[in-house]
Write a structure and sequence with these properties.
The structure is a homodimer. By secondary structure, chain A is an alpha/beta fold. Helix content of chain A is 52%, strand content 13%. Chain A folds into 2 domains: 212 residues, P-loop containing nucleotide triphosphate hydrolases (Rossmann fold, 3-Layer(aba) Sandwich), CATH 3.40.50.300; 61 residues, no CATH class. Chain A has 14 helices and 7 strands. In chain A, helix 6 runs parallel beside helix 7.
Chain lengths: 327, 327
């Protein structure tokens, strides 16, 4: 008896088969029933990996730093997976090439798996796709899963919030340092890294972060984010960074046991909302949603009353009264 | 007979009463039933304003440029409203102060209304709150509504996508210009502005944008984003920028009639998803969602099967079978 393809694939993922992992991540990227079934199959084998989120603007040397981190992690014998969320664009297309270069750097090391995910074409589901890809790497036996993203917008905050620790990368000479620091990144950093620390202005960035952190009063039980100087090109400081990640992990285990649960909660709500919209698309008569959009566009209906009607129809399908008799 | 408070408020908004507008925007920020009722009441009076979205990293001189634009718009007699989406943080708190300074610059001009909205505490609903605030300004008779945001993340893309035109602000000397340009902003710009054009490197930024744009083949019917050099501190170039906005508006009216409808569609889906989650919270027995989150966290359930069960229970409430008998 041959096993069904899904059982076979999930067994091969759990066994750490690189091609199966790549195939599985493609499935969850597609966001179809096969990807969801795969997650259901592997889910009991997940929950062991420690998720490390790293975000920083373009040009901060993120990829180089992650490569150094991989070497550091591998030196202690741990298996590591990397999900690089790359904003590919019709104008660039650098993701695939960069991926190949990095794969080569760790070629032959079966303890490293690197995968790029595009930020486009996911219609807001990128955080979900990233989380599911991390589950695949988790099930495949990765001890550490690194999720790297570009930029510090809400999407990046969402993705990095799905990790156990968030590392924010800064760099000297990137314009108005202090303003950039103020603009929303202070809240998400568990560790701040000032990379390219040999450059002029590195100490000013460190001081900027430090003085911003000093505005908040940390009591003894709270985690005060350390600021680590690194030079990714030489590897200087990367060992310190990795030790700080370990310190944070120990701290979080005792002081922040609720953190993972909050993430699972956010995730469930996200999947639930998406499911409902898919259901609406399935059960509404063809063309009806378009007509409602048209009515809102033409101001003959307002969006909130349309939503109220749709909710009534979805939740009480037995009393499906034609829309125009209802009001 | 005194009118009910909501009818009174919406009438005063439509009459352009500044205090009523401020009160109405606060209501839609709160995201309660009162805000939704207000939008329903004013909705038939909306749809006239042209929405201008402006995004740029911190330090690009966005506020100064918007102030110049306001002056330019006012010189042609149009009424203008501004929604400044400011990432306030426990570390900064500059939004309110900046707001007051800007209000003073246009003090006494009843044709200008400026309002800041914080990016925090909106739990993903910022794009909704911004859209509703724009509807208030629209109903109040603003001919132009400017929505300015900081950064180029997904949240900013969502907010700026709710506008009729998207302007991307760049500035010389902000680190690796070309990389920043590649990282997702090329797609959303209908016009690119290189501000602080008197600075060294301005032409390099212009060339960088131009060479990126040249990678895409624009046919005659397509809009090829112009690149405008400005000096917001002196006002140089702002008249050219405003003329390009006008050119785009004319082009979009004939070449992109579907654009607004697509925005209304995205908006409806967003409101619908939020409504459903609120319904789930209302009807689930107390503590049940927490127990499901716990089960997912403990790996005794997987997220996709939990969502499937919840969907079944919400959509077929008559057949509410206890969860454990269902599987």
């Amino acid at each position: 008896m041959t096993p069904d393809p899904l059982t076979d694939l999930s067994a091969r993922v759990v066994a750490g088969d690189v091609r199966a992992i790549a195939r599985a991540i493609s499935l969850v990227e597609d966001d179809g029933p096969a990807g969801r079934d795969l997650i259901r199959a592997i889910y009991p084998r997940t929950g062991r990996a420690f998720l490390v989120g790293i975000t920083g603007a373009p040009g901060t040397g993120k990829s180089t730093l992650v490569d150094r981190l991989i070497a550091e992690i591998r030196s202690s014998g741990l298996k590591v997976g990397v999900i690089a969320v790359d904003p590919t664009s019709p104008f660039s297309g650098g993701a695939v090439l960069g991926d190949r270069v990095r794969m080569n750097a760790h070629a032959g090391d079966t303890g490293v798996f690197i995968r790029s995910m595009a930020t486009r074409g996911h219609l807001g589901g990128l955080a979900r796709a990233t989380s599911d890809a991390a589950l695949v790497l988790d099930a495949a036996g990765c001890d550490i899963v690194i999720i790297e993203t570009v930029g510090v917008g809400q999407d990046e905050v969402d993705i990095v919030s799905a990790a156990d620790i968030s590392i924010v990368l800064l760099v000297p000479g990137a314009g108005d340092d202090l303003q950039a620091i103020k603009a929303g990144v202070m809240e998400i950093g568990d560790i701040f890294v000032v990379n390219k620390a040999d450059r002029e202005g590195a100490d000013r960035v460190v001081q900027g972060v430090a003085s911003n952190l000093s505005l908040k009063a940390y009591d003894a039980s709270e985690w005060k984010p350390p600021i680590v100087k690194t030079e990714a090109t030489t590897g200087a400081g990367v060992d310190t960074l990795w030790k700080d990640v370990g310190r944070f992990r120990e701290w979080a285990a005792t002081h922040r046991p609720e953190h993972r649960r909050q993430r699972y909660r956010a995730r469930l709500r996200d999947v639930l909302a998406t499911s409902f919209l898919q259901h609406v698309d399935r059960v509404l008569p063809a063309g009806e949603f378009d007509r409602l959009v048209e009515a809102v566009s033409e101001r003959t209906r307002d969006p909130y009353s349309v939503v109220q009607d749709l909710m009534n129809r979805m939740l009480h399908p037995e009393s499906r009264i034609p829309d125009h008799e209802r009001r």
